[in-house]
Amino acid sequence: MAYTQTRAKKYFERTLQLYNLHGVEPVLVIMPYHPAALAAFRAAGWDVKEDAFKAYLESLRGKYRFQLVDYT
Question: Of 22, 28, 48, 52, whose Cβ has the fewest other Cβ atoms within 10 Å?
Fold first, then answer.
């Protein structure tokens, strides 16, 4: 089931907006996963969720200013 707008997303986007209104360009960091944890995540279908998460962040690029550092 896909959620188009959750409360967490609203808070996250409001936070980005607040930073931008104050002239701050935040840096978002996607941390690496331990290889054993990553294998378990992938076995449970994590790739679909990870792709959706990254697509969501990319969809925000035209609306908010931020840097994305992806260590996955």
Answer: 22
Whole-number Å distance between alpha carbons of 24 and 9:
19
How many Å apart are CA 64 and CA 61, to the nearest integer? 6
Beta strands at 67-70 and 27-30: parallel, antiparallel or unpaired: parallel
The tens digit of pLDDT for each residue in 7-39 reads 999 999 999 999 999 999 999 999 999 999 999
Of the candidates 56, 53, 60, the one whose C-alpha atom is nearest the C-alpha of residue 16 is 60
pLDDT digits (tens, 9 = 90+) for 47-59: 999 999 999 999 9
- Helix or strand (DSSP H, E) at 11: helix 7-21
Contact between 65 and 17 (Cβ < 8 Å): no
